[in-house]
Amino acid sequence: MRSTSAYSWLIALPALIMSPSDIFPSKPVKIEGNVIHSLNGRQVENAYIYIVSGEEEALSGKDGVFTISTWQQLPVTLVIEHPKYRSKQISIKDPSKKTVIKLDPK
């Protein structure tokens, strides 16, 4: 007599149906953007940008540009923080479009 249940094969069923590419993308997604002042359009340097449910993070450069690579499935939520501006959250659904983030001064 077998000690395992007759239905124990059901535990392995998701692994047989789903491939790793269904769970994880085949390569990281690259999110690019530009952080600007909402009133005058000037680039915001050293804005801290991070993905809420991960460890991915970046700082905007002198030109306000940032890049973050992630293995997470889209959409992802970005948080943008800077000491002189109000924090902002945005959802990224299509990383092929360069994101322009307008920050409001405090």
From TrEMBL:
It comes from the Bacteria. This is Carboxypeptidase-like regulatory domain-containing protein. It comes from Paraflavitalea soli.
